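User: Can you predict the 3D structure for this chain?
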Amino acid sequence: MTALRPYGQHATLIDLPDPGLVGGIAAAAHRVRGVVEVVPGASTVLVRFTGTSRDSVDEALAALEPEVVAVRSAQVVLPVRYDGADLAAVAAATGLDVDAVVALHSSAEYTVRFCGFAPGFAYLDGLDPRLRLPRLASPRTSVPAGSVAVAAEFTGVYPRSSPGGWHLLGRTDAVLWDADRDPPALLSPGTRVRFEAT
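Assistant: Here is the predicted structure, written as structure tokens:
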């Protein structure tokens, strides 16, 4: 059941029962009168509004039907050196060999479901179920920028050096976040992504 929760004075958090609804609800929320910002999450959509009452916005949000989200035609291809610190461990944990892990990861097409954790960090949907592993029991204190990793149902790329608990498969030289670029993030919700082994 969808729940609406106040989030400060001028925002509402929509908590969705099905993560698959996030994109459609986020698209529909943009059309609500007074809404100035919509931020999709894993299973939530944050809606910021101005110039209208919370009651009227929440009434409209409660009545939303998910819109069909058009897939972006452009695809971002990220070249990857599959030599990550956890590649062999991922192969062992999944019962695959290293070549099979690389082949599965690099043959899929992914879609950015949402962004978070750090500027430019995109959570990519479409990971083969055979590569889905829980996060590391003990996160690393530092993961190098450009690290390509998997955790749970997602894959992603660390845009800068930071702590992290995902399994590292390889590394890309692509710049995921550049404050001087317009837009700064290379990947945004809805972007199609493919990894290319180099």
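The mean pLDDT is 92. The radius of gyration is 18 Å.
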